[in-house]
Each structure stands twice: as C-alpha cells, then as structure tokens.
TrEMBL record:
It is found in: Cytoplasm, Nucleoid. GO terms for cellular component: bacterial nucleoid; cytosol. This is Nucleoid-associated protein SAMN05216238_103297. Residues 1-14 have a biased composition (Low complexity). Homodimer. Keywords: Cytoplasm, DNA-binding. Binds to DNA and alters its conformation. May be involved in regulation of gene expression, nucleoid organization and DNA protection. One of its GO terms (molecular function) is DNA binding.
C-alpha cells in the first residue's frame, strides 16, 4: 500500500509540473481583438494585462466619443474572453474527471 501512495504522489508532482508549465505558457501568449472593422485593436497577454491599444485616426470624432468608447470596450471585452476561453481549455485538461469545487477551472 505504501508503494501505491508513493506512485500516486509522483504522478501528482508530475501533473503539478505540467500544470505550472502550461500556465507559464499561457501567461506568455499574446491575444488580440478588434472592433469596428479594425478601427480599434486591443492586445493583451495571458495574464489579462492590456499591452497595447491602437485606435485609427478615422474613428476619432470629437462629436461621437460614445462610439469610440463602445469600440474600445468591445475590443477589450473580446480579448479578455479569448484569454479566459484559452485558459479554461488548457487548464481544464488537467482537471477533467476531478470533482473540484467551482468546476475545477482556474
């Protein structure tokens, strides 16, 4: 019985290392989303940090600031959703079949 416990601990350590590597890889990824036909582009890393925002001069209209704000919000929300989806897909591979609280997602 002690041998089984040692094997299980080794397997858990291997899985933990794989999970940490996968999480590091996710953090290094770059995600990009745009709105308004590319008029606004938001870039973020896998840590959900916005690293760049590009706004086309054509969409900057002092008389229609609301539209610009909506485009920035749409692109930002889209890029965050991409990161969350990728994180859930990647990290979910490690929690399949486990009965973890909160669905086992990170």
């Amino acid at each position: 019985m002690k041998g089984n416990m040692n094997n299980m601990m080794k397997q858990m350590q291997k899985m933990q290392k794989k999970m940490m590597k996968a999480q590091e890889e996710l953090h290094e990824m770059t995600f990009e989303a745009s709105a308004g036909g590319g008029m606004v582009t938001v870039v973020a890393n896998g840590k959900k940090e916005i690293t760049d925002v590009q706004i086309s001069e054509e969409v900057v209209d002092p008389d229609d600031v609301d539209m610009l704000q909506d485009l920035v919000l749409a692109a930002t929300n889209d890029v965050i959703k991409q990161i969350e989806d990728k994180t859930n897909d990647t990290m979910g591979e490690f929690t399949k079949g486990m009965n973890l609280p909160g669905g086992g997602m990170f």
